[in-house]
Request: fold
Amino acid sequence: MIHVFSRHLVSIPMLSLALAPALLSCSGSLPDYDATGTFEATEVLVSAEAQGRLMAFDVEEGDSLRAGQEVGVVDTVQLHLQKLQLEASMKSVERQRPDILKQVAATKEQISQAERERNRLASLLKLGAANQKDLDDAESLLRTLRSQLDAQNSSLQNNDQSLSWQSSSVAVQVAQVDDRLDKCHVRSPLTGTVLAKYAEAGELVSTGMPLFKVADMEQVYLRAYVTSEQLSRLHTGQRLTVYADYGKDIRYEYPGLITWISETAEFTPKTILTNDERASQVYAIKILVRNDGRLKLGMYGGICLDEEE
Reply:
């Protein structure tokens, strides 16, 4: 019987090496697990976020990917053209923005002249060289020019504000196109291994169409099932030994860490064996294991509760 103790677990505290020779089986020389289950991993199905021809798709089953690594791109020509059109519209809007100071400069000059004329007539009136009507006319002209200046400022500011809103609207459309362009790039959402590939370069894809499946194979979980009696001896954060069973008395053992215990009972899955075959309801637990490359998804594994730490 081959018996190997994995030394590759780095994120989980290692179990004492002095215990390894004793961990041959739960009882006797053959495996007699208290609970068994299958190994699983965090899987993510990556789907297309854009519609069009898949121009490039450099991914194969078994490839190791980094989080954020780009593996493909959907045709972006039409979106680039749309962005250029929007940017041209934005420049056109900016050119229409009025120069308020220049456009009211003439009216301000008229007001200055009217104020000088009013002041001159006021001085002449005191000397008796002008009449009251001339002064009243000058005052009226000054009020009219000031009203015109206020109307000009209001109109120009409203026009400028309207153009600002129009420019902001175009800027939002540009941002939307940028977001759609970014979604044309297919990236891996996590660091892991490609489990399946569902498309090829050159195919037409639609939004939501599955492209590939990736899973974190460095850290896998053994989902096992225990009875309520066994549950009393387990708790999250507990370390214990996990056995990967390859059949024909070949098995490897790994340090494991209980990360989750179900809050509700469920009926015993048909493929799962418990120490008490009469148990009709069990609780699922997940045990985190650092994968050294041997563990595969769906592989059977077991635990022995009389040797947990």
Observations:
- The first strand starts at residue 2 and ends at 5.
- Helices lie at 77-95, 100-103, 105-127, 132-183, 228-231.
- Residues 1-30 have pLDDT under 50 and may be disordered.
